[in-house]
Amino acid sequence: xxxxxxxxxxxxxxxxxxxxxxxxAVVVGGGPAGATAAELLARSGRSVxxxxxxxxxxxxxxxxxxxxxxxxxxxxxxxxxxxxxARIIAPSARTVDMPIDDGYVGMVDREFFDEALRVxxxxxxxxxxxxxxxxxxxxxDGLATVHFRESRTGGEPKAVAGRVVIGADGARSQVAxxxxxxxxxxxxxxxxxxxxxxxxGAADGPASGDRCxxxxxxxxxxxxxAWIFPHGQTASVGTGSMQKGFGLRQATAALRERAGxxxxxxxxxEGAPIPLKPLKRWDxxxxxxxxxxxxxxxxxxxxxxxxxxxxxxxxxxEAAEEALATGNARALANARRRFMKLHGWVFWVLGVxxxxxxxxxxRRERFVSMCGDPDVQRLTWQSYMEKELVRADPLAHLxxxxxxxxxxxxxxxxx
Length: 415
Fold this sequence. Notes:
The chain has 415 residues and is of the alpha/beta class. It is built from ten helices and 17 strands.
């Protein structure tokens, strides 16, 4: 039976050479997944180190559903806007409005949201470390030693050791590539956005402060979508594509011009890959488990990742706690099993939807037409906001199935 080391202080007893501080868990990456995992493990009484790069902000529209706000006790001050609906723009420039009848989608700014989660982890007892991960080695006791460069001291090499390591360091996770077989092989959407100032009247287009605009137009994104998401006094304007070489910056500039936002001041720009599919394996069978983007936990079609990152961090913390309590490293594999049991079917459905409906402007035109159907809108919002496929209305599902079939066969008229 493989096991997690049960003596966190054994290496510290060697006087012959300096040793790294030893923690129950070292979490690499301080985004929503890593910060959540660190907080939960610290609250359970475990010693935790949270290693995060300095100044990193992920490009993200910032949408958080009501279930996330409720389940993770997100305070009101982190919700910078409340979207009451979405506007979908077809290749032909035809628009379809999708209002939310009851409730809203919260919008957050990742610069402040992620930091608040890291502060919460620190207040729970996690030790925050600023630095850039380099590698993992193991000493004679089998403890994983995490090597990093400490940004605040000009790149000085440092190390901490842990009985368990949680890799939450993003879509191109170095922890995953070094420790988990098959990591780094999945496809990604490359995303880019600009945070713009909406407070001085420079915007003269139709963008709304309480609506998310989603563009399915090939010049803005040939295989994904472009967006304008409200952030209160600011907005996220961006696009994504799987096509290498596609001009994301140029497409974003075209989107801003099209939406009347070209004159709005740009506050910051960010870009990063977004994984499209959960990895087939999330642990190394010994002492490492992945969470968030590092595990591929981003919803296909929508690119939504904050909720799934935080759930993934929660589940990774539970698996790590089980491994630490029992000494059985096989418990780490439970993280992927539990996540896929909860959300695997939704990811599969969204993956099929993206592969088919996003493949051409003709199909995307029909997809936007479907978005105008009241049954589609109601079930879409219910499923998104509560993160569960709605099964309580079989008649509505049947109607949607028949309408989808008509669109797939080209029998339905594009309205």
